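Support case: user asked for a sample of complex input and structure output to validate their parser. Sending the pair below.
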Amino acid sequence: MSDRDGPGLSVRLDAVTKIYSVSGEELPALRGISLSILAGESVAIVGSSGSGKSTLLHLMGLLDRPSSGAVFYDNRRVDALSPSERAILRNRSVGFVFQNFQLIPRTTALENVELPLLYRRIPARERRERARDLLASVGMGDRERHTSSQLSGGQQQRVAIARAIAASPGLLLADEPTGNLDSRSAATILDLLLSLQSRYSTTLVLVTHDMEVARHARTIFRVRDGLPEDPR
Amino acid sequence: MTLVILGMRSLLRNPYRSLLTSLGILIGVLSVVVLTGIAFGAKSLVLRSIQNLGPNLLIVIPGSVTDSGAQVGGGTETTLTADDARAIRRQCPDIWNASGALRTAAQVQSPHANWSTVILGAEPSYLPVRDWRLARGGFFGEEDERGMTRVAVLGRIVATRLFGLENPLGKFVQINHSPFRVIGILSSKGQSPMGMNQDDMVVVPLSTLQSQIMGVSYVGVILAAATSPDRIDAAKREIREILRLRHHIPAGGRSDFEIQAMSDISRTANRISLILTVLLALIASISLIVGGVGILNIMLVSVRERTREIGIRMAIGARPRDILVQFLSEAAALSFFGALSGGVGGILFLDGLHLFVGWPIPVPWEGLLLTMAGATLLGILFGLYPAWSASRLDPMEALRYE
């Protein structure tokens, strides 16, 4: 049913910069970073808060556009696409997991997981079936009808992960996925992410400030003040 | 389609707000439907009472008219006579019958009661001209007219007031202290277009009223019936010629009478009611627009409130168009629901009015559907800007929105 059940997506950033202008003042978040991530690889991007690591992730996920430089998916330039084309690409190729879960309020776990499939125009019955399977696979099969306010942090994050992998993306982006969780839930979530990554051979990019978390990734990339700390 | 359902679902999540928002449109549609319905009803009421008077009827009233057409003191002059009526009756080929008529107010007494009413003096041809029937008894004839007989035909209301359940035929009533024998009872006719109750009246021979009660020789009006509706204009011309000749009015001089055709009056009534309808619809449309602004307002609030949700949807892969469709279908659903319930409410209201007031109020179906479609379109139009601004949000900024 999906376009890509095969190996993940390769991502390349080519000298990207990002400059925010806040009330007339220019604040550089990224000062020029080049980074290449192979398909199926797991990478942890590590840095202190304000280092630009989240911005980097957002550029990779096409949520934002670089001020200069370019982003490539499988050697295809994607940052210059139209908002609509980037939305389609996000839908098909990227799954996001956020620190604060970002489930849609007053909406059930099942409906949240169905969303990416809905925007992909998958028929209702198939959508529902697949969302059920996904929820079950993250251990949330008995919480389908619960809304986010009725779930614990760890449970919300599991729903969010099910949603992120719903459309079988080649690239899984996690922004401090364990940042809002206690250590036990954090360990479960991390295990879940890594096991999914190896099961579907997706590319996994993990942003964290926690070396304990980062250690689980095959490669670690350090960012500091918008620049790579130890360029590879 | 799925996105449309998505829009509905988010409305259901906020049922009170959705209800209040559609209320604006509901009231707008309701007022359009009710006001145009009432205007329609008023129109058919007026037309019906004109019809009631006889569609082929021409009324000749004494007095002249100014150049602009406004009547100045019409009906107060005394230039028309029973001979004029006779001439019209006999000499106009397109007139089927005519009767002079004169009225006054008087106290009428029976042995048990007395009642202040209108005394109408009329010729025997009055009944056929007015297409009026008797409920009981008979009407007076030429001999009564010539002989100035004291006979009276009572209107429905007068008969009940003076005699109750008794049969008044053959009994006597006193008009100005003279006894009149009751020979007939008129059938019920209801209100005249001028608002007079035609059942509250006593009819006596014209000559009797002129000489024995009022002491005058003129008539108040001449009622004439044309042979058919399409001969009305010809009949009007003939009456004008004959009367001008009889009144010795030189060519180019101003007539001392005026001829009104019921068909003209109904045309005027039609035009007035059209203006009324348009005016009322226009006023009601203002409330419809206010309802639309309500939708605009709520949708703007909703977009702002749900900015983060929009950001999440975009991150997951909603295209700008998907967001647009979702919010637009919300606005459309709100206005459609409002329009539908407003329309249904309007019909119920008009039906209720019909039931309690007895007005003939036809439900203006085409207007109703048009109003409902228009209101829905208006809601969509007002929802366009909020939906568009939602679709133009930057996904990153929207996600960070608190």
